[in-house]
Amino acid sequence: MIYDKEADKNFDKWISLNRNFFTPEILESIKKNSDLFHLSSGAYPEINKEVTPSMRSLMYRQYPTLKTEIRPLIMKFIDSILNVTGTVIFLMKMYSLVYRHKSGANVRDFYPNLDKWAEFYCNPPKPSTVNENDPPSHWQLSDTEWKTTAKTENARLSGFFQREQNRKSDFINLLQQIYSLHYPELLNLSSDESVIFTAAMNHEYDFFKSHCEYIEEFIKSGFPEEYIDLPDKDYLEQKHAG
Questions:
Q1: For 8, how many CA atoms within 13 A lie in the half-sphere containing its CB?
Q2: Does residue 123 sit in helix, strand or coil?
Q3: Do 91 and 44 form a contact (C-beta atoms < 8 A)?
Q4: Could you report the per-residue pLDDT of 21-62, keeping only the tens digit for each?
Q5: Which tens digits make up the pLDDT trace of 94-138?
Q6: Calpha distance 141→130 (Å, rounded)
Q7: What is the DSSP letter of 42?
Q8: Where are the domains positioned within the chain?
Q9: What 3-state class would DSSP assign to 238?
């Protein structure tokens, strides 16, 4: 990693001040992993300070139902989503990526699905459509009626697709902006490493989206707050019973 001279000076000062508290072996280990020390004392606090409140604002904008909640168990669940999204686990993934970049490692040795990820995550997605010239066999519609129905359905699918893509872009752009600012080493990645970065961003969004949709559905279903701790099987039974 690249650090300014002031950071290196502060690190050396910290080592000097703490010589009496650690064995020589531990101090030597800390010196060898000074980049991790700098990450935990520099980039991590800044990233953590920005990510969670920014993600909360994004969450409430994309899922306004969540903003109306005041029940303690539901609010705790919402906080648990925000405490995980884009924070320490994701940062360690990024650290691993930068570490391998610095060491000159071939990331293909660690990510056997890299080409599949490149194809899936790095190509522009397309909305689902129905064929205006091929009505389903079970639909008893004339060709003209089907074309009209298909156009309406394709407009609906396109609108849904665009909304979902806008949500994903807002999430990824926000997270990328924060990490690029406080962890600029991520701007130096190779093309293969950038695929991993993109995949990790998408995985983070999938976690955020699925949990927000879960709690949104929970709230709209009117379940009592204690249901939030039910195992999945019991929750589904309550959902279907309703």
A1: 5
A2: coil
A3: yes
A4: 656 665 565 566 666 666 766 788 889 899 999 999 999 999
A5: 988 988 898 899 999 999 999 999 999 988 888 899 888 877 777
A6: 15
A7: I
A8: 1-32, 38-241
A9: helix
